[in-house]
Structures are given as C-alpha cells and as structure tokens.
Amino acid sequence: MKKIQFFNKFLQFSIISLLSILNVFADANPDIWPYLKAQAFKDRAIEENQSFLKIDGPKRASSGAQVPVTVSVSQNDHKIEKIYMYIDANPGQHAATYFLTEHSQVVNISTRIRMETDSFVRVIAENDQGELFMDVIPIRASGGCSGYMDVHDPELTKDLGKIILKAENDFVTTRIKHPNFTGLQKDLDSGGFIPEWIVKTIEFNHNGEKILAVENEISISQDPFLKFSVPNKLEGDIEIVAIDTKENKFKSEVKTN
Fold this sequence. Notes:
Keywords: Signal
InterPro entries: Fuse-rel_SoxYZ, Ig-like_fold, Ig_E-set, SoxY, SoxY_sf, SoxZ_dom
Number of helices: 3
Strand order of the largest sheet: 1-8-7-4-5-14-13-16-17
CATH topology: Immunoglobulin-like
Number of strands: 17
Shape: globular
Protein name: Sulphur oxidation protein SoxZ
Pfam family, one: SoxY
Distance between the termini: 55 Å
C-alpha cells in the first residue's frame, strides 16, 4: 500500500513538473474550468454578469509561492454565506472557502496563494438562496506548489503558530507562522514527499461573536496571511483561533484601536 501511495505521489509530482516546464510561456488555460465547474458545482448556474463580487491580483506574480490576491464584496441585495476560491491549473484547485457573517457582508479579503503555473483564479459567492456568482482573473506564476525543501530546516517550524495580529483603521490583519506543507514538495535529504501539514481553519471573533471564518486548502501560502475589512468601527477584543491538520490550536487576541 505504501509503495502504491508513493508511486501515486511521484506520478502526480512528475506531471506537475512537466506541466510547469511546458507552461513557462503559456497563458491561463480556459479549457479547464468547464470540467472543474462540473466537478465542484455540478449543473448549477453561475452568474458572471454581476457587479458586487471582484477578485484582484497581479498580472504576473514575482513568486509563485506568495501570490497576493484580494476579494471584495460591495453593497448588494444578497446575503452572502460563502465565497469559494479556485485556481484552475493548480494540483489543489480549491484554495479556500470563506464563511461570511452579518458583520462581513461588505468586505475586502486579502490573502496569499500558491500557484504552480499560469492560471485563472476565480471566486464564487453563494447566497442564502443557493445562488452562485463569479468573478475571475488570469495570473502568470509558476512553481509555488511543488519543488524541493529542506524539511529539517529549523526556520520552517521555529515559533510555530506564532500569530501577528493587528486591528486598526477598520482592518484586521494576521499572519501565522506555519510551513503549510502541500504534500507535493520533496525532501532534499530523502527525496520523498513531505506529508501535507497546513493551517486548515481560521476563525475571527469580536467580543465572542464570529466575524469571519475560512477553511484553507494546500494552495494557501506558507505562513498564512489574511487581511480583511469590517464595515463598522469595532470596539473591544478581536480573537483569532486557528487549527492545523495535526490538530494544533493557535490563539491570539488584540484590542481594537
């Protein structure tokens, strides 16, 4: 069984490496989305002709391991419950799901993703009626999900779970110290695959009430970064609770300014 699992990982890594080489000068491929949509959303209609949901990012990323993107939701007539982020050409196409509350219906969310090759990056919002809305951008990037790493490098896990948390000017900003191994990276020493180990969930609470939550997948960058706006001036404590795939729990809180 272990041999089969290793072979499958090796095959997946080999395909990713080949695609990266072939796509060095390639544009984002529009042919992937119909298959991804059918897998993720079946035959549900997705409205693209909308004005309240937007994703922004660089045309070309300086690093495929840290690609900055921002998702914004402006005033609208819907109650948005979830926002899904997908990266068409990534081995882990589903990057994250954001869970909105009444405190985050109008919001800007900034994060950093990993991209293996040029791809469309898209966000799909779902309202309380099950209706779907989408925005999409192409980004050129490479090599962010795989490659070789020194798993024994102490800097990768030094201060594991240390949280930088700020709440000021109606924005909450956080960064969590964590290697966020994708499961597709190879160890420099053994040549084997480093097991997946990521910050899976992050939840933000204000005076005990949830503001925003996220479920991350492997396409979120090392040392996960998240910055989001809140529409009203908050007073009191902002608490963050994060849990990784080894069930480690990290917590911090800060008083708003």
